């Protein structure tokens, strides 16, 4: 984590201190992201199910979403499969994009690591093309590190 922790990351750390309910922690993290980032229309989680080997919808804020995503499919599945953050300025130009919400035009997906494995991903969508910046990516990666300590 960087020497200068983002304000949102500090808020998440304070919110989750001494909390150990995964669903509650993911729910509050989704709400915190949704409230603190402008021009987004969806913020939430996809959690890897080791039994079914798919990413299952977790807590989120926004419109109804896709329930299951195969690893390697869409931005969410690609970020999970490649174990790397993905910032897509125009999802309509992303091969294999899954259009869960037709209003979404840009997407940021950040893996969450737990015990050196990808536990799931943070997924943030925006109706604005080219919405996400390197600063956003770095902040959300920091949020993923904080969150990993509380799930």
From TrEMBL:
Cellular component aspect of the GO annotation: cytosol
Pfam families: GAF_2 (PF13185)
Domain called GAF: residue spans: 32-151
Molecular-function annotations in GO: L-methionine-(R)-S-oxide reductase activity
PANTHER family linked: FREE METHIONINE-R-SULFOXIDE REDUCTASE, GAF/PUTATIVE CYTOSKELETAL PROTEIN
Similarity section: Belongs to the free Met sulfoxide reductase family.
The protein's name in its UniProt record: GAF domain-containing protein
Organism, as annotated: Leuconostoc carnosum (strain JB16)
